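Project channel, design review

CF: Before we commit to the Streptomyces ficellus constructs, I'd like one complete example in the thread so the newer folks can see what an input/output pair looks like. Taking DUF1864 family protein.
RD: sounds good, go ahead.
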Amino acid sequence: MTLYDLVAPGLDTCAEPRYRIAEIREADPLGADALLAALPAMNRDADIPALTVALRALVPDLDRVSEWCVIEALAAMRDLGMLLGSLKRHGVQPVAAVPEVLPVLEELARRTDMVPRDTVHHYTTWNPLGSRQRMYTGEEMEAHLQDAVRMVFPSLVAALRTCTDLAGLEPYDPGFALALDRTAQHVQSMVDAIDFTVDNVSPGFFARVLRPYFEEIDVAGRDYLGPAAAQVPLWLVDLTVWQCDRPHPAYDAFLAESVAYSLPAWRAFHAVHKGGTSAVSKLSAALSWETVHRMPPELAAAAVSLARVLRILKTFRARHLGIARKAYSDDIRLYDQGSGGAPVALLRSVLDLTRDNETLVRRSLERPRTPAA
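CF: and here is what came back for DUF1864 family protein:
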């Protein structure tokens, strides 16, 4: 049993249809189960004619699409996406090969309020388990990578809720430290997931076998990235913790592109908080007023809790950087950039930024105080 299995039932009771994971997994509006079970064999043989016929066979009539609820539309995009990525992996632009899929992708995007292709959520969280699991290769390492991303979805949803609370609080409020402590618990799942990935997915398998399936495709003259792990938006936690008022040109540009691949509620979260004041800035401002020998206990607790969150974020990013360096090393890489569109150097920059913010907060706890008069 994974962390996902423990937390997901609570999500399935939500009114938000994109959180009703069990229903999306169960849905098969295209009747694609049998065809997609054969997908790994088609990919192994690089059978472009079979892949093209398969995609054409799954394309539904627009009248059917217009009758689907969000859950059915998400499941349909998930299943079409497996063939989109497979064709592109073998050098074929899927929409050019099967033009009738274009209006369907556009309508599915409209109905789900997402980009007109599959995302990491379609490929992992909304993907069925067991015999119905959709995979490009059918290899155990691919399944492990999907599991690693599934593990973090419920905790990320919970972290965004606690970050919303955090944004409305000040460091002197006892709830500030509490919101940070809860965020730390949720973000720890990202570290657990990346440790699971290190233990179960080799850099060579990702770089040379799986990475080619995550290439961008052209949809109506615009390129859309494949289901990259970078679309799991830990950066939404960064936003309220330190990033919203501490700009970095390269990271800001990456976020501007990545936000489009998020769920609608997560895009709204970004829009609300991108111009706010970060927890690090709030704490720094509060500390600047404290010159007495004893820091107020609420402020000390806030600093400790904020340092803890930043330390967990730093740990995740350090391990992610280690994996990326191996997967994109000169001897095994096929691509210069990650599947999320960012170079490995950006991961290094974000790690440095996270570490700098952690150091700033930690040193605030160590600085000498002026004795009381």
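RD: helpful, thanks. The beta strands are 217-219, 222-224.
CF: Residues 1-9 have pLDDT under 50 and may be disordered.
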